[in-house]
Amino acid sequence: MNALVGILILFATIAAMEGVAYVAHRWIMHGPGWFLHASHHRPRHGNWEWNDLYFVIFAAPSITLLVGGSFWGWHPATIWVGAGIAAYGAIYLGFHDIIVHQRIPNRYLPRSRYMKRIVQAHRLHHAVETREGTVSFGFLVAPRPEELKAELKRRGRAGVRAPVAAEAREPAT
After folding, report:
1. How far apart are alpha carbons 121 and 108 in whole angstroms?
2. Residue 46 region, left (φ>0) first, then alpha (ψ -120 to 50), else beta?
């Protein structure tokens, strides 16, 4: 397979994964998969939470495509699709777990309008502790924070976490 075509497939897969992540987050994780995802909307105690199993679940298609294309004789495009899914997972890990939730402590402060927007949108998503009433389900594409705040207000702030005193605050989860 032509490398340029493969690279185009890789980037198209990364772009498509934002849609897949949105759908999975909104209708699976905040739907029947809430039994795992609920741990992510509560303060984390320790290094792991039940929601971390989604990382394994969502890695399975990538691993299958990479192995199938590399060793089982599947079409070479499957390698590029598997790599695109893995690349999206790496981007997600960097943005979600490292930058927003600081699961690896760091001093990163978003300075660009884009980074400020997606970090704030994700924090507004986590302001809601319940399965319903949550806003902003994307990871790399997010509505403007003003729109999200207005939506939370319109919903009567249902499920929004009560403010925590500064001395009692735990790291964001």
Report:
1. 17
2. left
